[in-house]
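forwarding from the other thread:

> can someone predict this with iron/sulfur cluster?

sure thing
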Amino acid sequence: MLKNKVNTAARPKRLPRYTSYPTALEFGPMDGSKNDEWFKSLPICEPVSLYFHIPYCDKLCWFCGCFTTISNKYEPVQKFLEVLKNEIKQTAKKTGRLKVSHIHFGGGSPSILEPDDFLSLIDVLKECYDISDAKEFAVEIDPRTVDQEKIKAYASAGVNRASLGIQDFNIKTQEAINRIQSEELIEEVMGYLRDSGIERINFDLIYGLPYQTIETITETVAKTLAFKPSRIALFGYAHVPHMKKHQQLVGKHSLPEQKHRQAQFEWASKMLKESGYRSIGLDHFALPDDQLFVSYDNGKLKRNFQGYTDDAADSLIGFGPSAISSLPDGYSQNIPSIKEYVEKVTGGASPVVRGLAIDGHDKMFRDVISTLMCYFEVDPVKVAMEHGIHYNFDKEIDDLSKLVDADYMVRDGNSFRITESGKPFLRAIATIFDQYFDQNSSDIIDRCIHESEG
Ligand SMILES: C[S@@+](CC[C@H](N)C(=O)[O-])C[C@H]1O[C@@H](n2cnc3c(N)ncnc32)[C@H](O)[C@@H]1O
Ligand code: SF4
């Protein structure tokens, strides 16, 4: 039963990061009316989380893999905001005025929004949803586009977490990725945030960027540590010029080799751990007072589209072009094109165009994969039992046993834990439980080798 959900389309070269399961690669065309039914059946008494995608930036970073558009003028951004407000109103008519647990503004660069525009968007949000008890209200900030007025506006709206795109402090690397931002700028922004009472701060760092070496990474991590952000994401640079044409501007010759990338991650990780950060999952680090650290200890850590989260809500509603909603019955994604998104919402239609309905087995495998991605260990039989599902994991356990023989995992009863030497293969190991992954395409050990080659 259900052993073969795989579609025969060519598999991606890069292994999934499992920010969702099934991954967005499995989404197919979906009618907005299906999603409307899902919205209408959300339980009125359960809090939901909200994600807003602001698909605009001032300047193109050549390494960027996000869904964004560069706009030299502010007018299109303002027009877009009016449409986004309409999407919020139209959605709330279907869902009802639900309580909200977490709010996340991502992009693109939400910090492009002028203070009055941000506040008027929040006014609409408050009319439509009850955000009075939201545990977290986070905004992604490009430090080059923010100022004190904007940060004051965030604080007055209730923002309590800011995520700063730092990437790297080295000027040679910054020039090679077309993203120049000084340490002084970061110091100034941090001052504004802390003066405004926004104490929960994330830094995004990237390894594997042009001209990075252990020496430059050491410097970047040391400078990061001086700012004491409560959480750090240390992403591996994803170089996919066939998908993101502008990445061709990143000179291939300047990129560190895979073995150096791995050494950079390990070195940065060691520095962070020695300075009191706990390593969380694939690429996050948190101080003991950070919610990720606490939820990790409580066994409540989860995977979501932003990476890792302590958000306990079962449903996430995504707004804006390309935004994904994760609902009890499945996933749905808005159309990525801003133009088509505007046309649809303005015409009163749902902007949803893709998605995937999920069943009980998907939810069970989602928990298995999420547990593995968060805790590097899983007892699949126990997870299945918690879902009330009797499932024969023989094939999966066969693969896991090969990893035990390779010293990448250790087994204790039905529980499998990834060892230090197996940690670089986390994504390959998770594919074992992915019912949509073509299991016959390669042996599990080959998949690990593939992951180690980038
Ligand atoms: C939407 S941006 C953050 C906010 C803002 N736009 C900025 O860049 O400061 C999300 C983060 O994704 C990461 N990112 C973007 N492109 C990436 C890539 N190709 N590989 C790895 N990480 C990437 C960067 O660390 C970036 O800070
Ligand atoms: S990295 Fe951030 S600021 Fe740079 S282009 Fe991408 S989304 Fe915009």
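The radius of gyration is 22 Å. thats all i got for now
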